[in-house]
Structure formats: C-alpha cells, structure tokens
Amino acid sequence: MQVLVIGGGAAGLIAAGAAARAGHSVRLLEQNPRMARKVMITGKGRCNLTNNCTLDDLIANVPTNPRFLYSAFSAFMPQDMMTLVEDMGVPLKTERGNRVFPVSDKAVDIVDALVKYARDGGCRFVQGKAARLQLENGACTGVVLTDGETLIADAVIVATGGGSYPQTGSDGSGYELARQAGHTVTPLRPSLVPLESPAEYCKQMQGLSLKNCAVSLEDTARGKTIYTDFGEMLFTHFGVSGPMVLSSSAHMRETDPDRYRLWIDWKPALSAEQLDARLVRELSELANHDASSMVRRLLPQKAVSVFLHLAEWDGTKKCHDITRAERQRLLTLIKRFPVPIRGTRPLSEAVITAGGVSVKEINATTMQSKLVSGLYFAGEILDVDAYTGGFNLQIAFSTGMAAGTHIERG
What is the value of pTM for the model shown? Predict the structure, then answer.
C-alpha cells in the first residue's frame, strides 16, 4: 500500500519506520529541511527520550484521556522504545525518576536514530507542506500540498504535532486537516509551561534559581491543593519557571485567571519547629547585628529584601530586638511563601499542547479515524497529554507505532 505520513517529528518518524517495515511504500512529508526539530530541544538539548516505568505508571502520568492510550502503550512500552534506539546505535542511561537519556547527553543522537529507523525501513522523505486532505467517498486518498502538487496515498497518517514551539514546525496546521475531515478538535491550551504572576517580588528575584525547595499548587476556587513536588524552580521577570513549575501547569485544567496560587517551602528539610529553633539560635548568635544579616544567613541574597518587606521587618533593627511575632512572620513566609498565579505563558512557549483531535473519534488500537477510512492520527495532535519525565514523547512513539503497524488491518 502507498502510505503518506505528514510530519517528521517523533510520532511521524516512528510511524513511517513501522509502516515501511510492514512492507508498505512510505513517504514522509515534512515542511522543514531537517527532521524532528522539536525533539532537538527537549530535555534542555539532552532529550528525555522516555520513562523506564511500568504500564500503570505510564497511565498514572497521563491526566487527559489516559485509558485511550492503554492499548498503544501495552503494544509498545518504554522498554521497547529503548531497545529500538539502542539497536540504532545509541546507548541510553536511566536517571532520577526513571528518566531515560542518551549516554552522550545529545538530543541530536536521538534524532539521528529516529531518522535512521525510518530511512533504513525504506521510507522516502519529501519536503513540503500539506494544504488539505484529498477526501473521496468517505476515504482519505492523498494530500494536496501548498504548491498545488497532489500526493496520492492509500493511507495517510497525520502526525503534525501540536501548536507549541511553532518555530520547530508545530504550527497547529494539522488541526485544520482534522477539521476538514470532520473531526472535533477540543479546545487547545498550553501545558508544561511557565506561569505568570502579578507579584512584583518575582521580578525583583528574577534569575534566582532554587535547587531544593518544595512547592504546592492550590486551586483557590476549590480550596484544594492539586499538586506538590520537590526540586528546582526559577523566578523570572514575568513570574516563575523551572521543572516543578512546568509540571504544576499540567494540573491547571481550568483557565480562569487568578484561580491558582503557588506556595513555596524554602526549607523543606526542616519542620516548622526545627526552623523556629534555628531562627532562635541565629538571632541569639547575631544578637548585636542588624536583622538583615540573619536573613542573609538563611536565604539567597536576591530574596533578602523581599522577605524583609513581606515579613514587615526593619532590616536595621538589632537581632536581639526581634519579637516573637516578627520571628513567626518570617518562619511562616519561609515555609509557605505565596506566589499568586495570573495564568500561563502563551501556547507558543509551552512544551506541550493540551487538547486536540477528540479521541472519541479515533480507534484506540489502530489510531485510525472512525469518520474517514485510511486516515490516521498520531502524537501530540491527539487530545492526550502527560506530565514531564519522558511521558509525552512515549505517547508520540506508542501512537506512532500503533498507526504504522495497523495500516492494512485498520
């Protein structure tokens, strides 16, 4: 069969390689001169390829439509993807949180392995951009390109990615192809994205990176903590970013402005009682020094003036004059520092697009459209998304493999 894959990213390359290895004549259409540009920037250029975990863990890390992925995950697990990449000549390693990276710490090695998988299978690459699907009698029979050329195919796999990082080619054009075929596209929103805050003190602490802090995200409308984590974060001119912040954004399912609040524990290794004992000790040791000098002992320099202001401390006051009430205010701030959240950064700055082609209209085993025969979808274009840790790339690989291996049986 003639198979056309639209999109040369993670899902598209796996789908193309799998379909070619199944004996089909496969062409992969990619608008960029180079494949998998988004994969190149994942994991800060190291590429967190997947997560070396169980099926239950995979499902648990997908907040949107996890059951839809059960079949695809079961058929192609992270360990299968690891074997595939290593068979392509790229040794891998598993780090904290079961996150898998190339030993070289170079994302380009993963991109080269994906391209090799498709090319070695017999896939041919075509540069161009799809303008619309060619639909005849309820079937997809090819694609018309923006230059007017028509590529005929017995099966078309749409793996164009989402709407985030459009400079990499994920420009959202695949959603229009889906709508043209009659598919529902659920509302799009950014996920794994930095958060904006109206608090001026975030801007004051711009560039400050916290390595070992704890955060919790509160849904103020429900009065409920919806996410907690321990690790790294960063203050920016617009609010906050960093690994924990990106992860927390995936839990912000509602888009009401100012609905969420982030709380930071700057000293998670200490209980409130232990921290109070330390404050008492520090104040005693620095009894004749300015109060600001004690705060400098506890916190990064960029945070000192912020804490003095929020705790209503006079930094020139002597430590021996600090009252119990003042000490309690500082303690509360250190253990529960508030960062009001106005909302997220734009979709263009998100790692992942949440929302997409409704999975109710897709066969969960084959990834074929239930509306149009010969039409398949794979990867981020689907209405599925996961937390950080390699899970989103595994969605791309598993759905791409499902589409590529089920062409004839679809």
Answer: 0.91
